[in-house]
């Protein structure tokens, strides 16, 4: 197993750093996604870190299109990465269209983008859950035994990198590596609270309404949150008969 870890670390080290992007955990995660996609013949790879009971998400991805696919699961609240995080087990979908009943909204949206297979791996250590690593393929088919071992090792290295980055951050400072690429950061929590008051509901319903709005209007969840905080967008309670 140690040899596989060294091999994965070598592959990550071969990925180029982004121009103008400071070295750090965020760049390490982006390079890890790139290495995973190349090594596992994936069209893209995304990594999501869940913080505070899954209320906040931080994503790294190989490219903007994959970042959008990763974010879509968070917006909809359904998909392989959501299930992998909830069950603490890999979710392997070699034929996406066969999972339409399982994720009736997510599957058609992702299938339309050309994705045909998705493989999600939880990032966890002991009882602690950190997030998920996802692989997207444009062709159907299961991962081979060697590919599965490699994917699990990428997830293991991701956990070690995240923990190492956290351990070296000053108390109360994430050093930027937990900056939310959805653009929301603390605004997501603030917007959720504001929508809860507007609806006279609870936090869960507030988040559900924001997600539904983001999906219906093809917008990012973080952008919706920013509009709520800036009072450019308000939500009205649903009138019940």
Protein architecture, described:
A hairpin with a 2-residue loop joins β4 (117-125) and β5 (128-137). Residues 166-185 have low confidence and may be disordered. The protein is 48% helix and 15% strand. α7 (186-199) packs across α8 (203-216) and α8 packs across α9. It starts with a helix and ends in a 12-residue tail after the last helix. It is globular, with a radius of gyration of 18 Å. It has 241 residues and is an alpha+beta fold. The chain has 9 helices and 5 strands, in the order ααββααβαββαααα. A 5-stranded antiparallel beta sheet has the order 2-1-5-4-3, with helices on both faces. The chain has 2 domains: 2-167, Beta-Lactamase; 186-229, Arc Repressor Mutant, subunit A (Orthogonal Bundle), CATH 1.10.10.
Residue share in β-strands: 5-15%
Strand order of the largest sheet: 2-1-5-4-3
Task: Find the structural class using helix and strand composition.
Answer: alpha+beta
Shape: globular
What is the total number of structural domains?
A: 2
Under the CATH scheme, the architecture of the largest domain is: 2-Layer Sandwich
Query: What series of H and E elements makes up the topology?
Result: HHEEHHEHEEHHHH
Q: Termini separation (Å)?
A: 60 Å
- Assembly type of the shown chains? single chain
In CATH terms, the superfamily of the largest domain is GAF domain
**How many β-strands, per DSSP?**
5
Average pLDDT works out at 82
Topology summary:
Layout: H1 2-14, H2 25-39, E1 44-51, E2 56-61, H3 64-76, H4 80-87, E3 91-93, H5 106-112, E4 117-125, E5 128-137, H6 145-167, H7 186-199, H8 203-216, H9 221-229
Antiparallel strand pairs: 1-2, 1-5, 3-4, 4-5
């Amino acid at each position: 197993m140690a040899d596989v870890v060294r091999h994965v670390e070598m592959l990550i080290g071969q990925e180029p750093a982004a121009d103008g992007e400071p070295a750090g955990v965020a760049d390490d995660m982006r390079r890890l996604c790139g290495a995973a996609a190349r090594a596992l013949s994936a069209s893209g790879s995304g990594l999501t870190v869940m913080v505070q009971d899954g209320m906040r998400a931080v994503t790294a991805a190989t490219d903007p299109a994959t970042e959008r696919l990763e974010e879509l699961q968070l917006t909809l609240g359904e998909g392989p990465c959501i299930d992998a995080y909830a069950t603490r087990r890999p979710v392997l979908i070699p034929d996406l269209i066969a999972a339409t009943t399982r994720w009736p909204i997510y599957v058609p949206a992702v299938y339309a983008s050309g994705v045909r297979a998705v493989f999600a791996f939880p990032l966890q250590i002991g009882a602690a859950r950190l997030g998920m690593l996802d692989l997207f393929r444009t062709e159907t088919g299961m991962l081979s035994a060697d590919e599965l071992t490699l994917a699990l090792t990428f997830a293991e290295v991701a956990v070690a990198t995240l923990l190492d980055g956290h351990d070296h951050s000053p108390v109360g400072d994430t050093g930027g590596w937990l900056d939310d690429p959805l653009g929301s950061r603390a605004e997501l929590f603030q917007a959720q609270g504001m929508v809860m008051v507007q609806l006279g509901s609870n936090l869960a319903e507030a988040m559900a309404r924001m997600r539904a709005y983001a999906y219906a209007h093809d917008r990012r969840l973080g952008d919706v949150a920013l509009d709520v905080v800036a009072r450019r967008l308000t939500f009205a309670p649903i009138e019940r008969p």
